[in-house]
Amino acid sequence: MNDTKYIGMDVHQATISVAVRDSRGNLVMEAIVETKAETILQFIRGLGGSLYVAFEEGTWAAWLHDLLQPHVTRVLASDPRKNALLKAGNKSDRIDARKLSELLYLNKLSPVYHGEQGIRTLKELARSYITITRDLTRVMSRLKAIYRSWGIPCAGQQVYAPRYRAEWLAKISEAGVCRRAELYYQQFDALAALRQGTRRELLAEARKHPATRLLRQIPAIGPVRTALLIALIQTPNRFRTKRQLWAYCGLALRTYTSGEYRVVGGQLKRGNGSSALLAVSANWIGVWLVTPSCGEDLEFRHSN
Fold first, then answer.
1. pLDDT for 294 beyond 60
2. Which of 125, 231, 257, 277 has the fewest CB atoms within 10 Å of its CB?
């Protein structure tokens, strides 16, 4: 007798709607369990047999994946952008759980990769570094926007330097606007210090991984870029072909073919935006180093 069960979970902050199908695809059980580790594991242990569990990638996915992995045959966090069946017809937690279990039984779910535990620290540090960098960039843009709104030219990096800060603030005659700029400067200083500290931790953690030494041998791949590549891509073995790696980085081209027409162009909108930025920037730096004339042309365009 085949005791395989296919479990679909619609996860929310307070509760999880669960639908269970047997080896023939028949719906045999439905339940609502509390979103707590002890309650979830108690429910899973009560089922028995070979268990396959699926839920959508989201806020709870990493925690739930690590919780269930030692207790079931397979855990699959599915890509919600590819679950077309969930968008059709009526929608509720119960219906979504049923559809997830059905797609799991039919093997129609696209999994989202969850890496090994050994790289989790580096991955979280990389996320923190990227987030802080983006926040810092936003504050820098807001500072320059204040000066531009008052007709004050502010090209270059001098506007951010602490030694010239009083001089720049004196150019703003309005007291309220000047105070706003001072608050942005305080936010800039705090984020800049936090970014430097996170950068040191990120590089120290990256040196523990053997792939760092190999990636550093590639021209135009520096220590920070190496750490981010390891954290975001984790391992190239997760991709069956190199084209899948390109698509994940957002560098693959989408092809449209209809009748006599074939259109190729544009970057894929899906994929990891951070790894795409890494790949594109590394590519341009490599071209710049290999072809000096290209770098001079780009510098000329930027100056004009």
1. no
2. 257
